[in-house]
């Protein structure tokens, strides 16, 4: 399992199920966005591998099993729509 190290961050990642929230507080859970990006090769939940401060909408996702990669721009067809976090 991987955990966000930022103070107050509730997001965790587990290879078999993807991202989840580590909280029992329903109000805190409502404020979080859980990314759900699946690999097109093996349907595994991908993890957020890279962001770019200069391009706030950029997200690079990687598959933990086959190391496939995709960006949010590929997922949305370049429409600039936000996917996941």
Topology:
Elements (H helix, E strand, L loop, with lengths): L1 E2 L7 E4 L3 E4 L4 H6 L15 E6 L2 E8 L6 E3 H5 L9
Antiparallel strand pairs: 1-2, 2-3, 4-5, 5-6
Word description of this protein:
- The chain has one domain (2-76).
- Helix content is 13%, strand content 32%.
- A hairpin with a 6-residue loop joins strand 5 and strand 6.
- The strands form two sheets. A three-stranded antiparallel sheet has the order 1-2-3, with no helix packed on it. Strands 4-5-6 form a three-stranded antiparallel sheet.
- The protein is globular.
- It has helices at 26-31, 72-76, and strands spanning 2-3, 11-14, 18-21, 47-52, 55-62, 69-71.
- The chain has two helices and six strands, in the order βββαβββα.
- It has 85 residues and is of the alpha+beta class.
Put the structure in a nutshell.
The chain has 85 residues and is of the alpha+beta class.
Task: Count structural domains.
Answer: 1
The stretches of 5 or more residues where confidence is low (pLDDT under 50) are 79-85
Report Rg: 13 Å
Number-wise, the strands total 6
Strand content: 25-35%
Mean pLDDT: 74
Order of helices and strands: EEEHEEEH
What structural class do the secondary elements suggest? alpha+beta
> Mind describing the biggest β-sheet?
3 strands, antiparallel
Side by side, the strands of the main sheet go: 1-2-3
What characteristic shape results from the CA principal axes? globular
Give the N-to-C terminal Cα separation: 18 Å
So how many helices?
A: 2
Helix content: 10-25%
């Amino acid at each position: 399992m991987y955990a966000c190290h930022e103070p107050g961050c509730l997001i965790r990642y587990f290879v078999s199920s993807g991202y989840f929230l580590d909280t029992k507080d329903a109000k805190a859970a409502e404020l979080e966005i859980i990314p759900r990006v699946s690999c097109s090769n093996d349907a595994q939940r991908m993890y957020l591998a890279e962001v770019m401060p200069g391009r706030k909408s950029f997200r690079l996702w990687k598959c933990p099993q086959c190391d496939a990669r995709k960006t949010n721009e590929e997922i949305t067809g370049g429409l600039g729509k936000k996917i996941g976090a």
